[in-house]
Amino acid sequence: MSPVRRCSRTACGRPAVATLTYVYADSTAVLGPLATYAEPHCYDLCAEHGERLTAPRGWEVVRLSDPSAPTRPSGDDLEALANAVREAARPHERSGDSGGRGPRAADPVEVARRGHLRVLRSPDS
Q: Rounded CA gap, 49 and 17, in Å?
């Protein structure tokens, strides 16, 4: 038995990418991502049959995900995440106006650091 699930349509041997479920009470056909396990009352469909899916008259088709959408993060997403991590790891420098009571005077003061955790003390205490 093959570990890859196949399309439920007759004579179609392509791999399944989506699961079709009928909600009879709402007259709705729901096409979503491939279910983790094969269910007896659900139908696994390949990309082609998922795109061409139509419902009977009076029924509504709900598509939970776009099969053409990327399933992995794009390069831009990964780069933005890396930049955010670098920014969070960068030590924050205080400005030279230590004598003034500007908006920075109310910032908490870092007392200690252990790994990524910081101990903060209020400047008023």
A: 10
Per-residue pLDDT of the chain (125 residues; tens, 9 = 90+): 557 899 999 999 999 999 999 999 899 999 999 888 888 889 999 999 999 999 989 999 999 865 555 566 667 777 888 888 888 887 766 555 545 555 555 677 777 777 777 777 776 66
Residue 67: what residue type?
A: P
- Rounded to whole angstroms, how far apart are CA atoms 77 and 28? 34
Residue 63 to residue 67: CA distance in whole angstroms:
9
* DSSP-assigned letters across all residues of 36-99: SS--TTEEEE-HHHHHT----TT-EEEE-S-TTS-SS--HHHHHHHHHHHHHHHSPPPPPS--S
Residue 93: C-alpha distances to residues 85, 87, 104, 113 (Å) = 17, 12, 11, 15
Specify the amino acid at residue 62.
Answer: V
